[in-house]
Known about the structure:
Elements: H1 2-17, H2 24-41, E1 44-49, E2 58-61, H3 68-75, E3 78-83, H4 92-98, E4 102-104, H5 109-124, E5 128-131, H6 152-157, E6 161-170, H7 187-195, E7 200-206, H8 217-231, H9 249-259
Parallel strand pairs: 1-7, 2-5, 2-6, 3-4, 3-5
Antiparallel strand pairs: 6-7
Amino acid sequence: MGRLALLVLAGLFVTATVFPWCSQAARLRLKSSWAIALLDSLGVKVEADLTHVAPGALVVANHVSWIDIYVINAALPSAFVAKADIRHWPVIGWLAAKNDTIFLERGSRGHARIINDKISDVLATGQHVAVFPEGTTTDGRRLLHFHAALLQPALTAGRPVLPVAISYWEVDGERSLAPRYDGDISLGQCARAILGRRRLIARLVTTPLRGLNGEDRRQVAAEAREAIALGARLPLVTPHADDRLDLPATRQMQTQAVKSM
């Protein structure tokens, strides 16, 4: 925990003093190395299959834990999409803004168009933008409904959509539930569960997706969900209606706060 606290302080210092003078490539390297160091302090090793990576891709990933963000940044440093409220949060909002977070105001069609243009602009530079189309976390043993609207900017801009499967494993090869951050599990409980393991393996698998340009976003979302299920070794079942419901406001705030760090 002490090492984790020092890493957070170091991240604040680097963001304030180094980021303003860095090239985009250098900033991405710093984000990746910091994420790797943070995961290592938690005892998490990343194993990444980056076979299907293409520059400027929309990273579409399943969502298990608050550490998903760092697993992605360790292998594919990205800009993330988060709700606009986080911009005004002390410390976290500042960190999010300085780390290329794209803030989304939900329920505003006009703002959604602006955000779509911002995402397209970031993708056009060759940088990745990451989204979690489930909209919330699971225990890692299933996939929820994918919200297809989050994929539209890439389709409109003709940029690649990259399905990324994230799964967590114990050293004995069994799937691990320690990183889960769903239901009533708090951030502290989740962190303690992760630290209680001597070592965890985070597997990140990129998968190909057929026919993107001009495709219906619901079809692309369905294909991405199928690809992620295969990559994470999850059963592909039709989500229940309850799976499409939004989280209570308190959990949304907790989850989005961590996503934007």
